[in-house]
Amino acid sequence: MNRVSVSNIKKMAYEDPLDGLSSLLNGIAVQKISHTPWKNFPYQPAVSVAIAHNEAAIFLKYFVTENAIRAVNSEINSAVWEDSCVEFFIHFNDDKGYYNFEFNCIGTPLVGFGKSRSERDWLAKEIVGTIQTESFISKLKKEQSVDWELSVAIPLSVFIHHSFSSLSGKEGRANFYKCGDQLPVPHFVAWNNIQSAEPNFHLPEFFGEIYFQ
């Protein structure tokens, strides 16, 4: 089982610009998202993620290289999983439900909470809208592929089913994903491997371990 220890970057104030955060996260060790659990979907884009936190937020930076991108959904809580999409699911040990954070390559967010894929409550758009994102997309000149990066700041206030003053010392379960249901080559890639007959990221029993320093 994969385990990630999340660095505490206390010196970074949440109000700081995301471009400063993006540069800071370049120095955080990345987690490779490289499992392709379903044989009918073998395509594996190059994907990794850096994760950190402070007293106000969780920070993510995804690094992606894939053959093509799609960015159709621009409304909060729209079907971003159909686009070039990266995801972060997290379950805290004292709760039965888990949060799913999903973002397409232009930073459109979708956030839900619940016990399973069929039992999800979408968070209010006003709350999801407090998440900050910054994306950068570039076409590689010599190859038929696209590079993109996405930096994300998730305020602790978005975790509405908890009352966190700090995540320091807390443990839980989590998984990171890359998907693209409507891309020319659909794919489903996970950080911690999954065992199921069909593509399904909503299986918390296959989450890895996460610890916040």
Structural description of this entry:
The protein has two helices and 13 strands. It has 213 residues and is mainly beta. The two termini are 19 Å apart.
Low-pLDDT residue intervals, each spanning 5 or more residues: none
From the spread of the alpha carbons, the general shape counts as globular
Q: Which CATH class is shown? A: Mainly Beta
Taking the sheet with the most strands, its summary is: 13 strands, mixed
- Helix/strand-derived category reads mainly beta
Radius of gyration: 16 Å
CATH topology: Immunoglobulin-like
**Whole-number average pLDDT?**
94
What layout of secondary structure does this protein have?
Elements: E1 3-8, H1 18-25, E2 31-32, E3 46-53, E4 57-66, E5 85-92, E6 98-104, E7 109-116, E8 119-122, H2 125-128, E9 132-139, E10 146-155, E11 171-179, E12 188-190, E13 208-212
Parallel strand pairs: 1-3, 1-13
Antiparallel strand pairs: 2-3, 3-4, 4-10, 5-6, 5-11, 6-7, 7-8, 9-10, 11-12, 11-13
